[in-house]
């Protein structure tokens, strides 16, 4: 009887689904949590929990295990978006003209904050630690921050991000371009506010 019971348990569809989900989700958890931290900050743990719950309910929609990373990422991004919508009735807007007019290279050349540097751009970027970068990213509107993180941090292709977010590829490419420009401008503003544009005193 015990053997029969074990056989029944092994072939139970619910148990098989739980095992499959655990095998697919557990390796992705650290990456999902890092992404959620960058997207929603302190709400990351709740966002990942929402993601896992939604993913488990939709497990039957996943045909191939190799697609699990992108599939879970898409669900997490949607969960984070829902949290953004609940926190803010209107999305944060930034004038496109203001974004396009800013050039970090030109700003560094004009201001010349490090007069003895032979590599202004690199010297500027090297002043930012991980926490600084995360603080600047957190100031970007969600529709710019999300594609930047998915492409430049998580390594997805722009066309994959378009599929995940259900946004046209051309729009994603435009947001990546403008998001990079806005990120550079916010880096400069952050550096000014934190007095990072000075040569260290010898």
What does this structure look like?
It contains twelve helices and no strands. It is elongated. It has helices spanning 2-10, 13-25, 29-40, 44-57, 68-87, 96-101, 104-111, 120-125, 130-137, 142-152, 158-165, 169-193. It has two domains: 13-87, Rna Polymerase Sigma Factor, Chain: A, CATH 1.10.1740; 96-194, Arc Repressor Mutant, subunit A (Orthogonal Bundle), CATH 1.10.10.10. The relative contact order is 0.11. With 202 residues, it is mainly α.
In brief, what are we looking at here?
One of its GO terms (molecular function) is DNA binding. The protein is mainly α and 202 residues long.
Topology:
Elements: H1 2-10, H2 13-25, H3 29-40, H4 44-57, H5 68-87, H6 96-101, H7 104-111, H8 120-125, H9 130-137, H10 142-152, H11 158-165, H12 169-193
Helix pairs in contact: 3-4, 3-5, 4-5, 5-11, 9-12, 10-12, 11-12
Describe this protein with a few key phrases.
RNA_pol_sigma_r2, mainly alpha, disordered N terminus, 69% helix, Arc Repressor Mutant, subunit A, DNA binding, RNA_pol_sigma_r3/r4-like, Rna Polymerase Sigma Factor, Chain: A, 202 residues, transcription regulation
